[in-house]
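User: Could you go from structure to sequence for me? I need the amino acid at each position, not a summary. Structure tokens:
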């Protein structure tokens, strides 16, 4: 009964993530089916958290999913657990137990999922510092990335077509928002690489680099296109090719940590980075050495810049 009640209040119908419902570009049929499967896997993980918020039993449900898609279920589950933590009064450590336990190999996806929750329930944003205080000091910027993805995915006409800016962001928060927004464009434009290039070109130049970084991550982690399309995308990125590579390296590291390597991730790393996925992941590790603590420039951005410069 509790599960049914939670779903009745917080559930997301599977129809909500179809291209037809969202109004996304309906290009290549195979790409559309693949990206819709990514969305349905996220929703599966989200609903699994609403049904069973015990970390271990939740992980058992998620681990039944094909390894290539499993990360999206962990992302959805972290959104669900964050909402339950904030909307209930007794048990408020679900996300912490999940992240420190069975989801410890999926830190990127968990932090992004928290951003979905903050986007879904607006009043949580006013408590943003409290919500992030127990998360990884470096990766918690991915919460803002997840917020940007959510807004692009569910409000693409406002944030992608009309290129709106969220209310009152700090300068760097807007940059991370755009990295998530770039990931959403991969879905909104149906992985149509030429259309994606045109979409990004319509944004102010100052925002384009971070959008390309998000595209690199989405293409490499989510996939959906063949080598020819990846090569065309790489050429279309022009001076932002190193941003594509940085996003690809993040994706490679996320999959390496989780042990769910995918053929499309290897392929994208070969094109965007010129090296294997494991080697690209190693670049992210090397860029962490002697990383300064938070200062005028966030450590997260110093990390990203070091990675990007490795591919210049």
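Assistant: Here is the amino acid at each position, in order:
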């Amino acid at each position: 009964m509790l599960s049914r009640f939670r779903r009745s209040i917080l559930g997301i119908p599977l129809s909500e993530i179809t291209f037809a419902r969202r109004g996304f570009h309906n290009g290549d049929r195979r790409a559309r089916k693949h990206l819709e499967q990514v969305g349905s896997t996220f929703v599966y993980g989200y609903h699994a958290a609403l049904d069973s918020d015990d970390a271990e039993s939740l992980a058992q449900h998620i681990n039944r999913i094909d390894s290539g898609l499993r990360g999206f279920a962990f992302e959805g589950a972290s959104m669900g657990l964050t909402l339950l933590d904030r909307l209930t009064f007794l048990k408020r450590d679900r996300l912490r137990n999940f992240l420190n336990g069975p989801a410890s190999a999926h830190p990127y996806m968990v932090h992004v999922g928290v951003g979905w929750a903050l986007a879904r329930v607006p009043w949580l944003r006013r408590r943003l510092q409290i919500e992030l205080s127990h998360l990884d000091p470096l990766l918690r910027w991915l919460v803002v990335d997840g917020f940007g993805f959510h807004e692009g995915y569910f409000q693409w006409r406002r944030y992608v077509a009309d290129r709106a800016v969220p209310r009152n962001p700090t300068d760097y928060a807007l940059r991370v928002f755009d990295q998530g927004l770039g990931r959403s464009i991969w879905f909104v434009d149906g992985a149509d690489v030429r259309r994606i290039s045109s979409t990004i070109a319509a944004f102010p130049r100052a925002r384009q680099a971070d959008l390309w970084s998000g595209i690199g991550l989405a293409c490499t982690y989510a996939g959906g296109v063949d080598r020819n399309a990846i090569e065309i995308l790489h050429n279309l990125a022009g001076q932002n090719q190193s941003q594509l590579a940085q996003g690809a390296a993040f994706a490679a590291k996320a999959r390496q940590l989780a042990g769910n390597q995918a053929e499309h991730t290897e392929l994208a790393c070969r094109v965007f980075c010129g090296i294997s996925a494991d080697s690209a992941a190693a670049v992210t590790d090397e860029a962490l050495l002697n990383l300064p603590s938070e200062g005028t420039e966030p450590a997260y951005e110093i990390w990203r810049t070091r990675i990007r410069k490795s591919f210049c």
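One structural detail worth keeping in mind: The chain has 18 helices and no strands.
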